[in-house]
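Retro notes - structure team

What went well: the batch runner handled both jobs without manual restarts.
What didn't: labels got mixed up in the shared folder, which is why I'm recording both outputs here explicitly, each with its sequence directly above its tokens.

Job 1
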Amino acid sequence: MHVLEKLLDYLTTTDAHKIGIMYITLSVINFVLAGVMAFYMRLTIAATPPGSPTPAEFPDRLYYWAMSLHGLAMLLLFATQAVVGLGNLLVPKLIGAPDLYWPRINALSFWMQVPATILFWSGALFWQQGDAPGWTLYAPLSTRSQSIGVDLILFGIIIGGFSSTLTGINFILTITRLRRPDIPMLDMSLFAWSILAASLLMVAALPPLAVGSIMLILERHLGMAFFDQPIGDPRLWQHIFWFFGHPEVYILVLPAMGLVSEIIQRMAGRRAYGYTAIAISSVAIASISFAVWMHHMFTAVQDYAPRIAFAITTMAVAIPSGVKVFNWVATLYGGRIRLKAPMLFMLTFLLFFIVGGVTGVFFPVVTLDLHLQDTYFVIGHFHYIVNAIAFAAFGALLYYFPHLTGRWYHEGAAKISWALITVGGFATYTLMAAAGVLGSPRRYAGAPTPDLYPYHAAMTVFTFVLTAGIALLFFNIVWSLFNGRPVKNREDPWGTAKIGLPDVVPPLVKTHHEPNPWPFIFGNAMILVPFGVLSLLKGYSPIVANSGLFTGGMPMGILALGVFLAFGVAWLRFDLVGNWLKMRHMDGAAHFEIPKPPSVWGDLKASVGWVIFSEFVIFATLISSAYYARVVLYDKWTAAAEHLPPLLGPLSIAMSIALWSSSFTAMAARRALLSGSLGRFYGWLAATMGLGLFFAAGQFFAEYPELMHHGFAPGSSIVANYFYTLVTLHGFHVIIGLVFWAVVAVMVRLGYWGPRRPQGVEAAEYYWHFVDGIWVLLFSTFYLGLINAIPPPYAAGA
């Protein structure tokens, strides 16, 4: 019974500490599964005779599925979940916060990772149906594969990305708004600084990958080509993927750097040298990381100007990283270093990170990159960095283990595991780099020539050493959890508080964690969304029809999506509404005993502001992709535009005027509320929602059928593909805005929001203005033809 109570406690918890433990547990599961994929690859390569197995010749699809799943799982599942888990465990304690800013959303974010993980690994079950997409999901592999497993992976990416974006916003609000007032920003924990920088990247870098995944799904099932020829351009996917992919590396590296910064200074017995420089360099790395993605594409981009520009920015990102390394070494100089296992892991992080950085400086040199691209040298470089991240995570797990569990790990076993991981990892990745310099290509299921086979065989041997070290580390953790020596002072087991660096900063307020099952229910119900969408697509998509799944078709799809929405309505009705009724006479949030610190902008407005920012990134990705297609596919776009039916007409003008007018009625509603006139507020709110409904209904039930009647249908041309994708996405946001207004009306009626507390109404108004502003961009782009007016990319006759 005790076990069942414990399980129920974790299933219904909103406590960041327990959620952090669940994140780390899930990340370890994904680490083991991804490791099995890597092990299968190494054994396959070692067992394959050299000289024959090019990707086109090798018949074993499972090898390429293992390669695809290993890379994606290590980045998007294991590493991301481990970072978020450590953030949940440590950030509130290091900044004196009572919890994360949104406890319920924090729990929801975790439970969304569960269906994302299930969908992701379920893709492996369909490896015989079609080719693997590769871990970068490059078109045309991802667009032409007939395996439904590709779609399960894409939906897993979308759900996981949504979860991580919410987590990023949650961390930003926690650090900026729940940090103890007596902790100045520049004196804040270096790990909290790194999580703040990584969270900014989550909000800005993850939405483009979700957008690209949706575009892949539309292309695979509805023929709306964006990436595959002859209509689309496969380089566009590379741009989208690496615009996400390179910041994603820093989403993982920055928290690892924060952990190193925290633990090195504690184990050296002195405050970090250049504390402020280390903190600010995290933000600098995050900022520059968005300007380096194209160095992954030097072989695909032929123009010299972007090559030179991105070579410079790639070199520039090494500067703030170098600042950190210099300050870490300066911190060690003169310190009283304790060479315990956590410190050994952190020092080895420095070794692997420096070697990884040195091997990385070759890639901005375009002439060298052209030779090294798609060789094992790239794999060696990347795995130096990834293993460095793992060293930081393992070292932090050991350092905080006595604080989290009240028991000590076994020091001798920890040092042996460190030695095995260090030797196994360094030897494996050095052999990879050496084989790459000698010309061994990536992704091959074996050595292409006999002289390279010894390198690959040795890599496999040292992979066994690496695996043994990791297995021993995990065994040590599990064994010590039950049998470890008790800690005398759990609050300060390492005795570091005396140097001014406490591991726990007590919050000024206490927090309640009442059991709440709805994040668990609604988060896991997310698995119904891909099931419902793919069921709806069965009548249109040969891939879905031939998969042998989703036999219920459209009725089952509608049922699945309806059940999912019903869970959302139930959460609203049976949990949130009751909570609002309790809180309507309070100024603070229900999970805190006293009100939160006063706000300059307002709680909900700040939250919605970050949501709007992430939504803007989504639209910016799609709009910029449309303009990219216009320039790169100029002749195809021009030919399609010549047969374009008139978009600008009485209906589109009336719809646009109605939507833009609703911004003024929304302002009038807010002003009426502030003046205390609820009657006028409801009147203006009804006008706002009426105008929004007119826009949405006109678009979906009048404009679309008319355009399709003239042959302008999704999939008919590159112009139609972008038009319907962007305009439909905007229409979906109009519906979200209408739901937001409906919730606002309910909450005003319940007395939660009113003249004295108008933040919800103001937040809904700002979101509505955002929706109206996006329509200005779309109306100008398509209806006024701004995108069609772009001149040819090259002068005539050039």
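Job 2
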Amino acid sequence: MFISKKLILSTGISLAIFANCTPEKSPFDVSPADSLDPKRMEAPYPAISIPEGTDMESPRWKGIDLTPQPPVVPVSANEQLKSFVLQPGYKLTPILSEPQIREPAAIQFDGNGRMYVLELRTYMQDIDANGELMPTSRISRWEDKDNDGVYETSVIFLDSLVFPRYVVPFGKNTILSMESNEDNVYKYTDTDGDGKADKKELFASGLGRSGNVEHQTSFLTWTMDNWMYSTYNSRRIRWTPDGVIQEPTGNPYGQWGVTQDNYGQVWFQDGAGGVPQNFNLPIVYGNFGIKGQYKDGFREPFSLVKLADFEPGMRETKPDNSLNNVTGSAGNDVFRGDRLPKEIQNKYFYGEPVGRIVRQVNTEKSEGLSYIQNPYREAQSEFIQSTDPLFRPVDMATAPDGTMYIVDMYRGIIQQGNWTQEGSYLRTKIQQYQMDDIAGNGRIWRLTYEGMERNTEKPRMYEETSAELVRHLSNPNGWWRDQAQQLIILNQDKSVVKDLEKLVNSSDNELARIHALWTLEGLNSLKVDMIRKLMKDSNPKIRIQALRASESLYKYGEKSLAADYRTMVKDSDVDVAFQALLSAYILNIDKVEEFIKTSIKENPAQSFQVIGAQLLEKMAEQKKTAATQFAPQQLALFNKGKTIFDGYCSTCHGVKGLGTPTGGGELIAPAFSGSPRLMGHPEYAVKTLLHGLTGALDGKEYEGVMIAMDSNDDEYIASVISYIRNDFGNSGSFVTPEYVAQLRKETADREGTYEFDELIGEIPKALTLQDNWKITASSTALQGVGSTKDPSYAFSFKGWKTDGAQEAGMWFQVELPKERNLTELQFNSGDKEYPRKYKVSISSDGKAWTEVATGEGVKGMNTIHWNADNPARFLKIETLDKAEEPWAMKQLVLLAR
């Protein structure tokens, strides 16, 4: 087989590895050291160079060992096994390793048990993070077809990605994913069955974040309550048959890892903070400070690697040169399988790759609050330790076979390039042990226990009917229950409602009852009489789940449940009583503040006293900030719009903007929360209210009809649209009465109601950046560690800017693959780097240009539009003035009719 030198460089797989991997020699026996320069391992070793002027007496440097040291040498997976220190009875087995995979950072299993591997192939390939945002990462899919426990069959499901943030199986041959510095989540599907995604669809927007690749959104996770949570985003999203909706939540304070326990409590894993976050209460209720939730000594790791090679330096180093404070945690899992001992089932685990450990977390519950500790602390140990400096556990997962899988990046550098720059402590330590060139590896391990065989049943959920899936809700392995629940909901097959109700009401399996309850909720088939019956169940955990699920019914208009919350706050079980308080708070039932105050007086439990007081503080703060959230004119529109919505629109669209169900569980009218139509170009909403709307929306029929409301004045229409775009978890631009007046005038001759397809055809649509767009600029600056001079970053959160101050005549150009009726563009330039004056020109050939608009830049978001009379392939933005600051753009959007 011919392998080009270019391929070797791009994949990091050396010919030596391929040559040594023979049928007689397992890949797990092949050492990555075979691909390294043998001279690096010869003495004398390189001397350590410290930048002139370094304060060697500072806490970071004082006491550092600078003597030349032998290099750290990577070993084969089977050799690495000798480095692990496990708790008695446990065993690790490699199931996948380099050269088959490179830089694995996360794994997920789909409904047929196939394993998707997120491969971050550009992560710290050298000490300066060069090429970090090159489009060479991938998502591969692996299958164990012969059922021997080793994943031998693979396909590259999705390739050429820019540092992807997660992989989420989402039905048969479909995943969700998002790239770095982007704002959109896309759904990727393999439509022809060849194992490779060939269809890309927008799934949701508004979940992105710019900046360092370690500080962006990760781990979009579908949880028991049928919502999806990710790190960094103070919102949750949810797939429904009518579209993706969203709701505000507290701040996750997570960095790399989102998981849930058997009862739907979502845990987020902090990165630099080194500890789990938001594990006490569901994040939808907000953030709360709980003194002592990390028990004394929780932050101390017990590492067997003693190189002092961590960013905090000597100030967080034990006398033996091991880490004394968790500092770089990543990846998490509540183990919910059935093929490891019961004492670790439903326990939380996470990796600390700087300390080279996997930590188990035990939870102690007291008066409704949770407190966590490392159960091996007194023995000064961890659940898993390693003496190999290259062991980098970054994710773990409960597998379909009932065991735990651990993702090991197996590399030299685990901190991003911002912390390894010239003159840094960390760079010095990395070079001392020559770890900067150990990259391109990765292992996935299976954790088993002596005497407990893995489950060899191969999942085949994509070939099963909804009725067959229902039986998996009783499986002792939480992975099976989660997947079955998700697929039944995606199927929206209500033929199983009776089976689910029977499971909820008569099963002796507590967890099966809970999953069946939430599956009914996801099918929009919950009945209030069932909920009230479950609120009286003898099992307090069932009562808690009934309260949480009832929140959906309340949001859809069943306000009589407020009386149940007032009753259940007196429940004999403190956890149940406290859940009733939380449900009343988040739903903002009538006189909720008085209700909370009374409950605090009557219940001395810590949950009521500590969290209850903070709820009252939040409510007081919300009152103070409500008046300053918007400018005076915007606030007037918002308040008037809320009055209109509550008194008129909520009848069909729901009191919380989620739609009002019909008797059959369908919606009378579409939801507003997170609606891409309502949150897209405001022309859609204005024309809908002015002239009405009929017909199926994106193929979905609704019982209600949107009538024309043009008899109301411009301020009425502007206010209700502005309110909808800024409540229900939405955050959009306001619509002015002047804009409504403009569209009213332009459509004055219209007769009759809009058909949906007709209206959509008139609305400017945002064009999504594609690989075949050609983006050029007269000047482009190099931005940040690992960056390239790529003007296409203007379309992302990362952004583009000129290499120097603004000068008249600087330009930014987009060449499209075909002509479009361009009509508008939007971009964000921040507070200072906006173009002072600029013009927009279009062209069909890139030679003859027509000026279509001029504008003066402003701080933040800039919008400029023109009549779309001339189709064009080229668009150019040019500065017309000079300024001391560069010209910058991010989140650039082109719109066309």
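One thing worth noting from job 2: The longest helix spans residues 632-653.
We'll revisit the folder naming next retro.
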